[in-house]
Each structure stands twice: as C-alpha cells, then as structure tokens.
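User: Please predict the structure of the protein below. I'd like the answer in structure-token form so I can feed it into my own downstream comparison script.

Assistant: Understood. Taking the following sequence of 107 residues as input:
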Amino acid sequence: MATTNLYTGGAEFKLPNGKFYVGSYHVHPTMGAMVGAVHTSRKHSMLTPANEEVEQKVETLKGRRTKGVIPTSSPARPRTTSTPPAPRRRPRAATRVPRRNTGSSSY
C-alpha cells in the first residue's frame, strides 16, 4: 500500500523532464514518489527528490505504508468548495427585419 494524498508546492520533486513538479503525489512502497494522489494501474511518472532532505522523507514514507497527509515544507493546497457553474443560456436568435417589397419578384 502507498502513502497517498500528499501535495508539493513545487520545491520538493522534479519530473523526468527536469522541471519542478507542483501537485498531488503519493509514495509507492517500492518505487518511491510518483505523480498523482493515489497509485493506479495507469502509467504515471516517477518523481525525483530535489534534495537529500526530501529523499530521506520519501525513504521514511516508503516504510510507513499508510494513508494520510503528512506535513511538507511546501504549503498545502487549500481545499475549497465551489458551487456548480450556472447553466449556460443559449444566445437569442437575431431578430429578422422583414424585407421591403420593392415590387420586383425573384420568382
């Protein structure tokens, strides 16, 4: 079982392309830190710790195998509740102006 529902603000992990990762992550017991809040069977990137302190944290979590959020050096993403967006209104059809009868016919 992985340690799930963790969040990084961007200073702790790098993606395989070298860019810092911001978002939810989990720590797999054998593979380490990975993208996404929970482990899935779908392909998802492994995260590389940005420094030794983060690497030690990951190693500790790998042995922990529990669910839950632990404090990180990055601020947690605030949880907000939002109301669903209002339904979209269809635009009104343009009002057609009747053509004036000019006396000629196109028939």
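That's the full token string. The first strand starts at residue 3 and ends at 8.
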